[in-house]
Amino acid sequence: MKLSQIIKSVFATTALLSSAAAVHAAEVEVLHYWTSGGEAKSVAELKKIMEAKGVTWKDFAVAGGAGENATTALKARVIAGSPPTAAQIKGPSIQEWGQEGVLANIDAAAIPGKWDSLLPKVVSNTMKYQGHYVAAPVNVHRVNWLWINPEVLKKSGAKAPTSWPEFFDAADKMQKAGFIAIAHGGQPWQDATVFETVALGVGGADFYNKALVKLDPATLTGPTMIKTFDTLGKIKGYIDKNAAGRDWNLATAMVINGKAGMQFMGDWAKGEFTAAGKLPGKDFLCVPAPGTDKSYTYNIDSIAMFKVKDPEQQKAQLTLATAIMSPEFQEIFNLNKGSIPVRSDVSRAKFDSCATKSMDDMASSNKAGTLEPSMAHGMAVNSAVQGAILDVVSKFMNSNMTSQAAVQALAKAAKTQ
Amino acid sequence: MSDHTLPYTAAAVGSPSHTPKQQGRIAAIADAWLPRLVLSPTIILSLVFVYGFIAVTAWLSLTNSRMLPNYEISGFNQYVELFALDRWWVAAANLGIFGGLFILFCLAIGLVMAILLDQKIRAEGALRAIYLYPMALSFIVTGAAWKWILNPGLGLEKMMHDWGFANFHFDWLVNSDFSIYTVVIAGVWQSSGFVMALFLAGLRGIDDSIIKAAMVDGASLPTIYRRIVIPALRPVFFSVLLVLAHIAIKSFDLVMALTAGGPGTSSDLPAIFMYQFSFSRGQLGLGAASAMMMLATVLAVLVPMMYLETKGARNGR
């Protein structure tokens, strides 16, 4: 084939492809990073629902942990001027993308769907940019859980703790009985998960909000924050030294097989327990972390919609948003993923005791005003500040830094632009 | 391209009706343009994708780019912020420790192994393969393997305890004060075989008669190596330094696999710093500034070295 022929055929193919895209206009391309077992199954459900409504689902899955790779892919697409129809973005990042002027208004799905009355206010605010819905919430994870192996508890003669003194008492007894008291993975985000849970438990929801959401300098350097770091420092002593760099699911495995007694982790840990054939309440316990039973730190996944020109695609976008919020999808998705639905009117019949406790606590903490966004999971502050705080916390966890030095570093980190 | 072959080929391709004079002109044009034509794609590709992107990065480092690039110049504030960050200085100091020790140990071990292998021993081929083989692994594999070997609860320390040496203690991997040295261990393990291969090739290139003459003069073997062989390896030293220095500065995958920059940020390197700030923390401007600092480091190390080397070559040393 001559060069000119090759060039011609390349152009022809490109033209064909672009016209093919124009023909199948009722199509959604969704960028997400749900690629692990249960997650992929959950996404397949959404795909099924969309295809039943006559919308083609074009999967754009980018593997990789906390979605860093997916975000990079998304940025490249947006800069190139061809964003996907929708993408998995959460927390303050929704506002950052909103400021770039690339998110689509989906009020046309949210207002008839009564999202305002279905969602807790703190949640719906995150989904809005300048008062208009731009994203649909998929699920709620509770972060401030403590996972306990009841077998270890019994063997060491301790009981499930509800306060910090009880917690350290139980940890001492477990250690004396030859167990690792606290299973932990020494990665920055895990360190931060424990840190924010301790802050919530030591200082309460108001303190948490002032310090880790509003980043108030006086609260960040105040005595309660020092006490938080003191407690965190004490917890450090119950973690085995091999924790550095350990993945969270390996730490969960230590609780599952009875090597360790307890773990601070969000409710995605439940997936590990149930995958190992364990039953909640019998083989493992989920209790709110000490001092946090009246409050709730959430991590909400959401799908944000991007501006598209084609009216058919805009329609498909609204269909997608409506489908995400539908009770059927919320039920099946969250059963697979281990989280709970964002709306409270979904049937509870199939959910386990940890999930129903999470639902109750979310409703009551929403009423009490103690429903707080998780800092460690990118719900409270933008990624730059979050990263700077994570640096401080992980340094504290891995060095002999004093609590006083830590609060000063924390206040400096909070000023990150 | 030689002048003798080209007219001939040009004539063969062109129609046979051309006069010899015309053929000569076409050949001259082809002679002038063909090399440029052939080289231009690669030159353009490197201009755009290496130097062009360096220029874009330099530009970005002067802006307030956050999540997406923003091309409004705002001065040197990203550099000011970078130099105020503890974490950057940890990364820079780690690069100094890692780079220095990595190059030093690779050179020393590689040279010793090459000299030992050069003693006309049996099964040299097999030994060479054994030494060189780690280079065939990717740094990710090396990192993952050493992560298990050095983990006190899984690897070396546990093995020694199981063998009855209860006092054996080696927890550098999980100790923030020493974690960077584990990266040196894994890096040296991987790269010293390659350094050995380069040195061995250099040793084989040395004229035997010089060494024999020295032996006749009664020089001992260590003296021969110290005064004749190692000085003769100078160009090899230069190439090895060049390769090792840039492996050290761009080092990313090894640390990510071995310690992921941890515990905490104790084994952070500039490359990891740059990646995290640019891509996962939405501080593209700051990340670009750190990338420029890495480039400056490379230039600061390599430019004097290349200058010295070319000067040396010109003087016939």
Describe this structure as you would to a colleague.
- Chain A: Part of a binding-protein-dependent transport system for a sugar.
- Chain A: This is Probable sugar-binding periplasmic protein.
- Chain A: It holds the Pfam family SBP_bac_1.
- Chain A: Residues 1-25 form the signal peptide.
- Chain A: It comes from Collimonas arenae.
- Chain B: It holds the Pfam family BPD_transp_1.
- The complex is a heterodimer of chains A (417) and B (317).
- Chain A has 417 residues and is α/β, with parallel strands linked by helices.
- Chain A has two domains: 27-141 and 300-358, 3-Layer(aba) Sandwich (D-Maltodextrin-Binding Protein, domain 2), CATH 3.40.190.10; 145-298 and 376-414, Periplasmic binding protein-like II (D-Maltodextrin-Binding Protein, domain 2, 3-Layer(aba) Sandwich), CATH 3.40.190.
- Chain A is 53% helix and 13% strand.
- Chain A is built from 19 helices and twelve strands.
- Chain A has helices spanning 3-23, 37-52, 68-79, 92-99, 107-110, 115-118, 121-127, 150-155, 164-176, 188-213, 217-221, 223-236, 248-256, 269-275, 311-325, 327-337, 353-368, 383-397, 403-414; strands at residues 27-32, 56-61, 86-88, 128-129, 132-133, 135-142, 145-148, 180-182, 260-264, 285-288, 296-305, 371-373.
- In chain A, the strands form three sheets. In chain A, strands 1, 2, 3, 6, 11 and 12 form a six-stranded mixed sheet that branches. Chain A has a four-stranded mixed sheet with strand order 8-9-7-10.
- In chain A, helix 10 (188-213) packs across helix 18 (383-397).
- The longest helix of chain A has 26 residues, at 188-213.
- Mean pLDDT of chain A is 88; it is low at 10-23.
- Chain B has 14 helices and no strands.
- Residues 1-15 of chain B have low confidence and may be disordered.
- In chain B, 72% of the residues lie in helices and 0% in strands.
- In chain B, helix 5 (124-132) packs antiparallel against helix 8 (179-204).
- Chain B starts with 5 loop residues before the first helix and ends with a helix.
- Chain B has a single domain (82-315), classed as Orthogonal Bundle (MetI-like fold), CATH 1.10.3720.10.
- Chain B is mostly helical and 317 residues long.
- Chains A and B meet through helix 3, helix 4 and helix 18 of A and helix 13 of B.
